[in-house]
Amino acid sequence: MSDPSPRPVLTPAARRFLPWVVALAFFMQTLDTTILNTALPGMARDLGENPLRMQSAVVAYMLTVALLIPASGWLADRFGTRTLFLWAIGLFSAGSLACALSSSLNMLVAARVLQGVGGALLVPVGRLTVLRAFPREEFLPVMTFIAIPGLVGPLIGPALGGLLVEYVSWHWIFLINLPVGVAGVLASLRFMPQLKSQRAAPFDWGGYVLFSLGLMLLSVALQGFGEQMVGSAVAMVLLVAGVASMMAYWLHAARAPEPLFSMVLFTIPTYRIGIIGNVFARLGSGATPFLMPMFLQLGLGFSPSAAGLSMVPTVMGAMLTKTVAIKLIKRLGYRRVLVANTLALGAMIASFALVDRHTTHLWLALHLGLFGMINSMQFTAMNTLTLGDLDAATASSGNSLLSVVMQLSMSLGVATSSTLLLLFSGVGNVHSVLGAGIDLVPAFHATYLAIGSMAALASFIFYQLRHHEGARDAQDTMGQE
Description:
The chain is 75% helix and 0% strand. It has 18 helices and no strands. The protein has helices at residues 12-47, 55-79, 81-100, 105-133, 136-167, 172-175, 177-191, 205-227, 232-255, 269-285, 288-299, 304-310, 312-321, 325-332, 334-350, 361-388, 395-425, 441-462. This is EmrB/QacA subfamily drug resistance transporter.
């Protein structure tokens, strides 16, 4: 990222309310990533779709966010933070309205892409504005304040989605974004500073095209194998093309003077191990928020509201762990924590195969709460390990790549789990499983065992850490999740 313009002089009102504006953006983005999952079976019923094929509405959003994150900083430098932030809110709101008006899954996926364009810019541009508008000694307290709504969104998202789809309509999970978007636009016009770079930063458009093309081809190929929306031969061609695009980017980045992601990053052992470990660990943990609400409804017969409320202990457990994660890492070291916790995470995901119709609500709440604690410990340890040893020259590129990997691996986790669920259920060609009398519990159990095993394999990656690596104090990276 290029050198910013001189730090602006904020009015007292802007100093007071700018953090609230950015916090609102964090809330909108995090709420939207969790509110949809509980509503998917009800949406499938109204749209006449198989609920086991609704993952494309989730993957489309995550993949769009992953594709646009690398360009967010350059766009803010080029057009200004206020301009881009307003566009982000506008596109997110327009996408939300289009989602609510969708009458088919294809329309919904297209609307989710539009919504993802706005969502991809909201958080990075808001964070960048705070970084440039507030002095360094105030940055961490302000970011801590901004991160709180980011924790509230996942807390209320599943429950709110379930309540809306059961008692009102699934359309309202998108329509509630509109008044929030209007408030965000009005507040941004008044309190958001227009910050630009003093000099135009070169952007690696060639690398960006290769990298983005590779991500899209790999994602479409994976979904093609699972949903049989294209032939196996076509899916294989897309897979090979995706791998070729990513290899082409790697060769391009090795020669480019200012690549999209600096190759220097991969000479840092903790970053290299952290990024690779993130990919495999999140394949399992990223799939669980998608799978669990569907398992509770399609497998165990929960109502949408009951399924949404059942997810609350997961977020509560995650919030509790935040207070002890860094202390535990400092005491035991990254290698011990990540190896043990990754194995525990895989076992925890696999253990959902023990949940059946006879499981009590109390036991399910304890089970999900413990999963939330272990999952949160995993995220915190992986992120602080990955970013903790970066210096000023590599921090921006490293943080951007980590954000992309987080979104990408979660979208791959959703796509992979959906593919496995269709495979194990044997209902890939059934238009809808709702009301068809099909027992999906064994298919969900087998899927949990499979993705839990995949997540546990990441422990071998973290075992490559040396005992002393990742020892630098990395508390400033805590806001990544």
